[in-house]
Write a structure and sequence with these properties.
single chain; alpha+beta; four-stranded mixed β-sheet; about 45% helix
Length: about 150
């Protein structure tokens, strides 16, 4: 009778320890996957921000070279989503005239924010838009506007 009990108890203890180890691995692995997802979102938004900053800089250079009658329109196809999540782009100009323009890209789940800055001679109108197709355009004033298409 003692042998039957010790086999059963040993089996139950082995199952308990195995369950604890598997649960620990799943919890640790879940955190790793979430960290990788956030880094992927951050990397994708940095690339998108750099592309948009390059378009604004190009419009700024063309505005300076073309004089007061210049017409500039740059269409950019940006992705609607990053890693399956929608994102928002906020354009802010720190001052009138030659100044630093800041692009802030944000997602909500996971909560990630990326800032990309550039220097522009031409004023850039503040705006907020969702990811997707974007138009960078020189309008009267002269001022550069960034809008959804």
């Amino acid at each position: 009778m003692d042998r039957g009990v010790s086999t059963t108890v040993g089996y139950v203890i082995t199952l308990g320890i195995t369950s604890l180890l598997v649960t620990g691995l799943l919890i640790a692995g879940g955190g790793f996957v979430e960290d990788q997802r956030e880094q992927t979102v951050r990397d994708e938004m940095e690339v998108i921000g750099q592309q948009l900053a390059a378009d604004i800089a190009a419009a700024d250079r063309l505005a300076g070279a073309g004089g007061s009658g210049a017409t500039v329109r740059i269409d950019r196809e940006l992705p609607d989503r990053v890693t399956g999540q929608t994102y928002t782009v906020e354009v802010q100009d720190t001052a009138t005239g030659a100044s630093t323009v800041t692009l802030t890209l944000m997602t909500e789940d996971p909560e990630v924010s990326v800032e990309v800055s550039l220097y522009a001679q031409t004023d850039v109108a503040p705006s907020q838009l969702q990811g997707g197709d974007v138009v960078v355009e020189l309008v009267a004033g002269p001022e550069i506007e960034v809008n959804s298409e």
